[in-house]
Specification:
Length: about 375
């Protein structure tokens, strides 16, 4: 089943589900940054850009969107599988809008599972979230695939346990059978579309690197996630890549240095310092947009790491729509802007230490097929 409305709370999440929908359906999938409808026949994924909003603002935005659609039209809200962001605000709006919503942020392939009403993220930086605490003040019930049904007619969040793909497949079937809305990660959408079984990955596309006329890459790393910082540190050691730390006082110098490197077909990484705050992120977006605006889209591609970073850069470039260019399933997604610029997006929490270095060699990396 393809939901009538697909909303994501940040840009990399929107890109991931757009890519998944394009791969599974073979249809044109457009990512909208301003709420505009897409072309006739296209599936539209809306980036609501709410990950860093307050609970009250998130509630307001979701409420306004629900007011514009029919009660019978099903909604999928793409969440972070680590449950970052004002999740309770989204779900409170769904309940207040008369919706029964199945919640599952589980992604067993990444070690992100929910058991006994506790969502756990594996790894050294992992955390546990008790769903009852997350949903305090929101009408909800903690369930699993065996206790989900029956449920009453009252609007509520059905916060579901899921520890493997079979759980997600069963939850998706129940949601379809009973007309539930859904909120969760890309693994839940995959289950909804095709029982959770990924299609064979297409043959690897041509690398960005071979040949003298390859496109130069401008990578932009604004995420403060530990994974993103480790990837950045690994790239700093490469002599063939110019890595520049951008701060408010260094924007003109960073733009000039990046332009000079790109003129010699050298790849560039623009980064926010690890201790940098909102002003540093704004400076990074300013520098990145300035560099990209002066480049021939046919001779340049960009990698935007972190959903908030990606949105800031695209806003400065005036990009309001993107089209998914499906390559293979995963959290690294290829998109095309109306100008023809190729844009890759990657969540800041994605990949190992050498993920960024691998991406500089070949986008997207053939070895990764994970869903965030």
């Amino acid at each position: 089943m393809i939901p009538a409305h697909v909303w994501a709370d940040d840009l990399t999440g929107a890109a991931e589900v757009a890519d998944l929908l394009a791969l599974r359906t073979g249809r044109t999938v457009v990512l909208s940054l301003d709420g505009a409808p897409g072309p006739a026949g296209a599936i539209v994924v809306h980036d609501l850009d709410l990950r860093h909003s307050s609970r009250a603002d998130a509630h307001t935005v979701i409420t306004a969107r629900l007011a514009r659609i029919a009660p019978s039209e099903r909604v999928f809200v793409k969440l972070d599988s680590q449950l970052h962001g004002p999740v309770a605000g989204y779900l409170a709006a769904m309940v207040d809008g008369g919706r029964r919503t199945l919640l599952s942020a589980a992604n067993p392939a990444l070690g992100r599972v929910t058991n006994g009403g506790v969502h756990r993220v594996s790894g050294p930086d992992g955390a546990s979230t008790r769903l009852g605490d997350l949903l305090a003040g929101v009408r909800h019930r903690v369930v699993d695939r065996d206790t989900l049904v029956p449920f009453g007619p009252a609007p509520a969040v059905l916060a579901a346990d899921a520890t493997d793909q079979r759980d997600l497949d069963a939850l998706a079937r129940i949601a379809v059978d009973h007309g539930l809305d859904l909120a969760g990660g890309a693994a839940l959408l995959a289950a909804l579309l095709e029982g959770g079984h990924l299609p064979p990955a297409p043959a690897a596309g041509a690398s960005n690197r071979p040949g003298t006329d390859r496109a130069c890459l401008v990578a932009v790393v604004g995420s403060s996630e530990p994974a993103a910082r480790a990837q950045l540190d690994a790239v700093r050691r490469r002599a063939d890549v110019l890595t520049l730390d951008v701060s408010p006082g260094r924007v003109p110098a960073a733009i000039a240095a990046a332009d000079a490197a790109l003129a010699t077909s050298r790849d560039v990484v623009l980064a926010r310092s690890a201790a940098g705050g909102a002003e540093d992120l704004a400076a990074l977006a300013h520098a990145a947009a300035a560099v990209l605006a002066d480049r021939d889209p046919a001779a340049t591609s960009t990698l935007l790491t972190g959903g908030h970073t990606a949105r800031l850069v695209l806003d400065r470039l005036g990009v309001r729509t993107l089209t998914a260019v499906p390559d293979r399933p995963g959290a690294v997604v290829r998109l095309r802007a109306p100008s023809g610029l190729t844009i890759f997006t990657k969540p800041g929490s994605y990949g190992g230490t050498h993920a960024l270095a691998d991406l500089l060699d070949s986008l997207p990396p053939a070895s990764h097929q994970e869903l965030r």
